[in-house]
Amino acid sequence: xxxxxxxxxxxxxxxxxxxxxxxxxxxxxxxxxxxxxxxxxxxxxxxxxxxxxxxxxxxxxxxxxxxxxxxxxxxxxxxxxxxxxxxxxxxxxxxxxxxxxxxxxxxxxxxxxxxxxxxxxxxxxxxxxxxxxxxxxxxxxxxxxxxxxxxxxxxxxxxxxxxxxxxxxxxxxxxxxxxxxxxxxxxxxxxxxxxxxxxxxxxxxxxxxxxxxxxxxxxxxxxxxxxxxxxxxxxxxxxxxxxxxxxxxxxxxxxxxxxxxxxxxxxxxxxxxxxxxxxxxxxxxxxxxxxxxxxxxxxxxxxxxxxxxxxxxxxxxxxxxxxxxxxxxxxxxxxxxxxxxxxxxxxxxxxxxxxxxxxxxxxxxxxxxxxxxxxxxxxxxxxxxxxxxxx
Length: 391
Prior knowledge:
By secondary structure, the chain is mainly alpha-helical. The protein has helices at 5-26, 28-50, 57-78, 83-104, 114-117, 128-146, 162-177, 196-201, 226-236, 243-256, 260-281, 283-291, 295-310, 314-329, 342-354, 370-373; strands at residues 190-192, 206-209, 214-217.
């Protein structure tokens, strides 16, 4: 029994985590009313402590934990200890961390959809034509802004410093919150992600860790994606858990920014989301969208694709598998595919904000108007039929 204590502790906290998720799924209204505020408050308190550090505290804790696991295993083998005790010692703190993460932030997966908080109508499905129109719009937006961005001698974006990008992103969310209160919350300073080369090869471009109130972005990625990913990780710490919604929030923040680099990054990402969806469902429509693309857009996207191709290794596949399982365990049945569902939100935003509705408004009933109360009936006079008699 002594050797099973750690495993029992792990099982108890795992059961508590499952109970939390079941309760959140059945009491969604309560989650939407109180939980996001509590989650943001905790993150703000933690960020005040960890924000003074130049590195990510969670990465240090993770490194020490992994090192302790290896040392513990070596000692257990060396002194011929029961490995069940070592396994329990490994699983117990991990299960406690998962429980705390779920209690503090993970329940946000069960919050009401972002479009409901924004009062933005989103249809269940959009036609190919609607998707194509939105893709062309975002591409044209990006191409218009492209003339304003600063580039280096290789044609790549010349980014501000990380500190300056944090200020830009924070101000962008401040601009956004005036229109949509759902984006109110702590303005976290995004840090540089450690182990950037290794994590880049694994396809990890950013991480948000609610337990320590930290968000980090991998600077070893194409400059085009860094402003967008900074806003994406900030969105997670604003209690926006779902990946498609965090992507949409990142686009909005970039577009509400006054900085052309952020606006270009956001609109180019929005275009690529829509174009990639078109590629899956209608290659002919996808070709039409790309037909009039500028040389600059083609060059930038080609460089992004080169970076992505370099990440398609065994390490990234393993990370994707873990991320897929994690998302499914939090109610996202389609796993990593939910990233691309942002296209529905992008099309809805385009139609809501930029498409003029030519449908005439419905006629309102006026009880003081006689013609509305008593329907007027018109009668047509008929002329008498002339008859001729032939004699």
